[in-house]
Amino acid sequence: MTHRERILRVIQGEMVDKIPYVPRIDLWYNANQRAGTLPEKHRNRSADEIALAEGWALHKIVPEFLKPDSSEDIVHRGLGLVHLKEYTYRFEFSPDIDIIMEGDADQMRVVYETPLGSVSTTHGYTEEMKDAGASAPWIQEHAIKGPGDYKVLAHIFGNMTFKPDYDRFVRWESDIGDHGLALESTPALNAGSPMHYIQKVLIDATQFFIHYNDYKNEMAELVEALTHCYAQLLPILADSPAKAVYWDANVDSMITYPAYLKKDLLPWWQKAAEIFHTRDKLLFIHPDGENNLLMDILADCGADVCEAVTPFPMTKVGIDEYYDRWCRSGKLTIWGGIPESILLEKSSTEEDFKAYLDHLFKAIAPGDRFIAGIGDTTPPGAVFDRLVRLGERIETEGRLPLKAGAAVLLSPELLTARPAPTSSSVPSDTSQVLDKDLRLIQEDVLKGDNVNIKLHVQHALALNYAPQDILNMGMLSAMEIIGGRFKDGTVFIPEVLLSARAVNEALTVLEPLLAADGRIQKGKIVIGTVRGDLHDIGKNLVSTMLKGVGYDIVDLGINVAVDEFVHQVSRCKPDILAISALLTTTMPQMEHIIGALQRAGLRSKIMVMVGGAPVNDKFARDIGADGYAQDAGEAVELAGRLIDINKLSPSG
Ligand code: B12
């Protein structure tokens, strides 16, 4: 049986001879090839040649941005439009749009001038991205900067035409042949719906949630224009020779939280599935994030395959639970299931690696509807030999049907790290002990009402409430409640951002009085995401929450160099330095920052807290940080504790 045939049969629910093994190695390859650190025997090979030499199927799901036929093919990346071999259509802008480009692939700025005004985007690669093997260019400047940009974009997308262009795909697919399954891609790096398109490429990832609340009409106009694009695309994709469509990417319980997903994505998944299934075509989605709150929705979304599935210990859902809820019911095929952390020496010992695989073969028995892959992708620092041994174990122990047996437990370290079911730690709502006027303010914060809160604060001041009480009892207590609810998964990113905005609005009224009153800040915190890391949604939430509960925040943004952290600590003299990293490749920067602070004689003066999806308590202790928090709610509690410790310490 060929790789392609085996993969297709598994997705159709057949019990084949063995589990297909399709590790994604693009990132690992790009980074190691650039650094000259490919394994000796593969030194002169391409990524595909390495996979074939090892006997693995080719992973042909994610578009390869580093191999455009012409540089022209990716210049419109800032608008979510590219023309690579994985895309089975061409797009054309309407003739009334003038396009001005400047720069090169590393930094390309494009201005789109339309009769309704202009928008601009900038995208490219940083050196750190190249070192880390990244393929998709980073959007540095988003098209939507303010509400006025929606109508311009609606004009651009509303007048856009799409035409089939199957030849390149067909040639590529035939090159891959039986070695793998080639997927056709959808726009905006696989945005599953018009709203998701806006979220993924057209606007800053955090700002999106504010606009989603504030500019409903403007967004609706752009959604309608994008719907016009999707209406053209669906039949083109459906009629293409591709056997499978890569429809949606970066699904995650926080950024595509349940209510949003149900309203703005699910109907499109269902529509796409219906159309593609009538053409005997498979629908793939890429839920590479935390899926704990989305398990049932995804099970019934119409997709055939969930790819890049990244289980515990990288996220909260274990592989056993994934398999039980998705595969045993016959609803979905999992593609992934191997958390990349088990390939890294720093994150997993040899014992952990072995224990994970022992557990896997038991947990997914009988083993149908499972394609082994690395979720999300093999990291640059992966031990190549583990990737090879994984393949060897699948070859021998992955013969189907797998025999169920006494579950082999994970090593104690991994096992104890597994999060307990979330307990309710929401700070109790204090509203019943507040009198009416402060309660109104508290409710404004909880509702994120940035208009009425100003009136209510003014009213409370007129009634002679002390500004400090309004702040502490009315506003900050409410932010703590929001933080607790966020931690519990009962509110999501938008609520946190809107509540924080209400607090900030009210502070414009209170701040002068608080200053006169000699208000003492809770403390100062410098925060940033480390060099090479462009993830900022989590960091922004932490920073927003901390600001919301009264800390003075200096946010350094993303991609912050070690020296810059040290410089800002020396300049701003914070009580706490908060560092965020979302990539295993960038986590070591945290240790470098702590070392550099030490060398600069600044370490003993501040507390260092760290966080981000791959970071954990153990890592924080190992690198000499003072604390780790799992989410923005916990970050607030941790900051409080660290400030207290710092005050007590002689150098603090
Ligand atoms: C959205 C996303 C993206 C977006 C980022 C958009 C943005 N502006 O941030 C895009 C698509 C651009 C992206 C790109 C990439 N990504 Co990405 N991404 C994600 C995803 C799906 C969700 C992250 C997120 O925003 N979650 C929601 C927020 C609210 O949660 P959070 O970030 O974890 O933050 C919370 C806590 O961690 C904590 N916290 C965060 N920071 C701090 C700091 C302190 C001090 C404290 C106390 C707490 C704290 O509090 C936050 C709020 O509660 C994750 C999956 C995951 N499991 O995390 C992958 C993930 C992080 N990405 C990953 C990868 C591989 C990449 C790419 C390399 C992909 C590629 N092939 O090119 C690039 C790298 C780009 C770069 N150089 O940074 C991997 C990283 C794997 C690893 N171990 O290294 C992940 C884990 C996916 C996976 N399953 O493997 N990504």
Uncertain parts: 420-428
Strand residue percentage: 5-15%
As for the number of domains, it is 3
Q: Between the first and last Cα atoms, what is the distance in angstroms?
A: 67 Å
Q: From the alpha-carbon coordinates, what is the Rg to the nearest angstrom?
A: 26 Å
Q: pLDDT average, as an integer?
A: 91
Number of helices: 25
**Molecular shape:** globular
CATH architectural group of the largest domain: Alpha-Beta Barrel
**Number of E strands:** 18
Q: What is the helical fraction, as a range of percent?
A: 40-55%
Q: Report the major sheet.
A: 7 strands, parallel
Which secondary structure elements does this structure contain, and how are they paired or packed?
Elements: H1 3-11, H2 26-35, H3 47-54, E1 58-60, E2 89-92, E3 98-104, E4 107-114, E5 117-124, H4 127-131, E6 138-141, H5 149-158, E7 161-164, H6 167-176, E8 180-185, H7 187-190, H8 194-202, H9 207-214, H10 216-239, E9 244-249, H11 258-278, E10 282-286, H12 295-299, E11 305-309, H13 319-327, E12 333-339, H14 350-363, E13 370-375, H15 384-397, H16 412-417, H17 436-447, H18 452-462, H19 467-488, H20 493-516, E14 524-529, H21 537-548, E15 552-555, H22 562-572, E16 576-580, H23 588-599, E17 607-611, H24 617-622, E18 627-628, H25 632-648
Parallel strand pairs: 1-8, 8-9, 9-10, 10-11, 11-12, 12-13, 14-15, 14-16, 16-17, 17-18
Antiparallel strand pairs: 2-7, 3-4, 4-5, 5-6
Helix pairs in contact: 5-10, 8-10, 9-20, 17-18, 17-19, 17-20, 18-20, 19-20, 19-25, 20-21, 21-25, 22-23
The structure holds cobalamin (B12).
